[in-house]
Design brief:
Two copies of one chain form a homodimer.
Chain A lengths: L24 H11 L9 E5 L12 E2 L9 E2 L3 E4 L9 E5 L16 E5 L11 E4 L16 E4 L8 E2 L10 E3 L7 H9 L4 E5 L3 E7 L3 E2 L10 E2 L2 H11 L3 E8 L3 H11 L5 E5 L9 H5 L5 E5 L2 E2 L3 E7 L2 E6 L3 H20 L7 E6 L3 E2 L5 E8 L4 E4 L8 H5 L3 E5 L5 E2 L4 E6 L1
Parallel strand pairs in A: 5-6, 12-15, 12-16, 13-14, 16-20, 18-23, 21-24
Antiparallel strand pairs in A: 1-11, 2-10, 3-9, 4-6, 4-7, 5-8, 17-19, 19-20, 21-27, 22-26, 23-24, 23-25, 25-27
Helix pairs in contact in A: 1-6, 3-6
Chain lengths: 421, 421
Amino acid sequence: MTSHPPHGHPPDVHARHGREPARSVADHAAAVAALLQGLRTAGRTEMLPLGQALGRGLAADVAAPVSLPPFANSQMDGYAVRSSDIPGDGADLGVVTPVPAGSTPPALKPGTAAPIMTGAVIPAGADAVVPIERAVPDHFLQPGQGGTVTLPATGPGTYVRYAGSDIAAGERALAAGTCLGPAQLGLLAALGMAEVPVYRAPTVLLVTTGDEVVEPGRPLPPGKIYDSNGTLLEAAMKQAGLTVRRAGISTDNPEELRTLLRAQGRGADLIVTTGGVSKGAYEVVRQAMAGQPVDFLHVAMQPGGPQGLGTFDDVPFLGFPGNPVSCLVSFEMFLRPALSGLLGAPAARLPLRARLAHALTSPGPKHQVRRGSLQPGGTVRLEGGESSHLMHALAGSNVLVHVPAGVTELAAGAEVEVWML
Amino acid sequence: MTSHPPHGHPPDVHARHGREPARSVADHAAAVAALLQGLRTAGRTEMLPLGQALGRGLAADVAAPVSLPPFANSQMDGYAVRSSDIPGDGADLGVVTPVPAGSTPPALKPGTAAPIMTGAVIPAGADAVVPIERAVPDHFLQPGQGGTVTLPATGPGTYVRYAGSDIAAGERALAAGTCLGPAQLGLLAALGMAEVPVYRAPTVLLVTTGDEVVEPGRPLPPGKIYDSNGTLLEAAMKQAGLTVRRAGISTDNPEELRTLLRAQGRGADLIVTTGGVSKGAYEVVRQAMAGQPVDFLHVAMQPGGPQGLGTFDDVPFLGFPGNPVSCLVSFEMFLRPALSGLLGAPAARLPLRARLAHALTSPGPKHQVRRGSLQPGGTVRLEGGESSHLMHALAGSNVLVHVPAGVTELAAGAEVEVWML
């Protein structure tokens, strides 16, 4: 124990306490997006094979180079016919050469029916398909034996998938900024594209701070806690498509933190620290950023109010607070949406509506972010209280619950916005 | 063009058409889970460092080895006090040695206040924290100068986070089968665990089939289509935590497909094929599975009705239909839930309720799975029609919309179950 800050640097005793005008959530989100604007530049795109582009954001509009389907084809296994050949009470038609998928059939002669497989080209002249189940006999004849089949009347266009009915060549298939999931990559493949222009994955240097913080797996001395922020944020960042460089735990010595940032921040697109941004006497991140264009401010949000934002040696920098729930909320409210907006990846959280299972109170001037579990019926149960240290409660949650600034209480049953984690 | 199947093997002309009794979605889901039961055995677990366990399923219950918080600590920067020292109208207390986070303070003497930082140990004797903002002066004094501070009355327990208030040592922190996301991994880190027992990631051999199917990036001859199933399913499987082995495209020659499966299926936990399971004359997967214990059947579902299930040379096998939307629906309805149920990973889709933006019709006996885009207000817009070839419509969707068997029409505004993709 000492009455001096542990590493001989002057404590931040003149930090203002609660006097900074709180910045709104929207304003801080905009500031984070502005800080990271450089991630969306032409030089930061790359062409990737489809198999490597999962979770990336599309860097340019993609126009369909071909139509989908590329040609009119059968939706069923059955017989391709000229619908005008079959009167209202059905007809017997001569069976001609079958059309397997992948072949290019000759034109269909009037009065005949061509066995056709799902996906196969509709022969010229044919305009409908009778499913095999509706034919008599209801199975295909042995090839080469000829024969006839009895078919019911069928309207033109029946079971025909027309060329371009999904998308026509030249139309925009995907917009720049689309996050590439399985369906989007599948569409690009269907269009014949083997690679795709995407934004490069940003690299983030992640540093947790605090003399009280110990790596998991080591013994826990009295007064210390295990570092959960590093694991939590690394996982959240990886899920969001970031390349994460872990710099371990910094002590509360600002000079050590500066040295660490300079040694490991090279080439990073972003530095994120946790802890040391608040109003205490020993705020290592505030102290380490002395002389750098970094603002430490308070966002009107609970948890996650204290935030740092600026650049360290010209590398964009975000200082998150030290509690794990505050870290995750900071990531979800500011960094993740900025990446979604700039790079199209990760996909933005979809705002859903849910009904509160219980009443809650909220500090009026602040946007409160609670954790909850969304139930199948559309109600949301709050997990844990307001406090930002409740990791176990967080681990039992699947949504963030938003209580906007200005709201001081909500009754059970009230509708709230939730974001699925 | 030929009237024979392209590779000289007898076509499956005697396949029954529409006569197999359709199996319910629930029954087929149970059959898929039973097929894959072997994935959940003790020999298939491994210990992984937290940083490598993202998205895996927990293989055993985890009890908390320590309490969280491990000790009573301060929720605020401020002064630790004995609440009984401060009468209703406040008191001046002598300021003693500060308590930074990570230190182990001596007991607090009556009549004194210890500057304390967020997360720091509450000194013995102290039972409350007064936030610095409520103190006079409202900033910390220079260390070593002594002095007094004026503090308002504060109830016992104020701004104290008690040991074990999040979770007590010995309690179950996470249940076996939990999918490990950022919050769950963060909790394990907070508990001091450096590694975690998880189920091994299954390896799947993925084969698309069809003479009509061409790799993206190559020229597209007439009558052919690009393979989108491979890209689509590979991405969906990777998202679900599977290790995917792509075997490219098989022709419609069953002997070639068998050879490919034998060459590349070794060591795989599962074989998935697409196409060739329906009722056409040339169904390569049906033919290739001759002699193997594989059922080809029809599930009462649209799209994705035709399915194959069994083992090929003792490797579990699933035969999905050939249309891309059918493939994704098959994956989402059968394979993904089976993995979630057996291994805890991927996380199960949360069933949500949404209101239809438009009316729809559905084939009564079948469970229909439509694609839609869920709007922030809680309505869902259908994207594309019922047809299973609409990749562009699928790429514009963010949910699957469920219309249960027995329902033939739903009005606009009707509530439906949706699964977020």
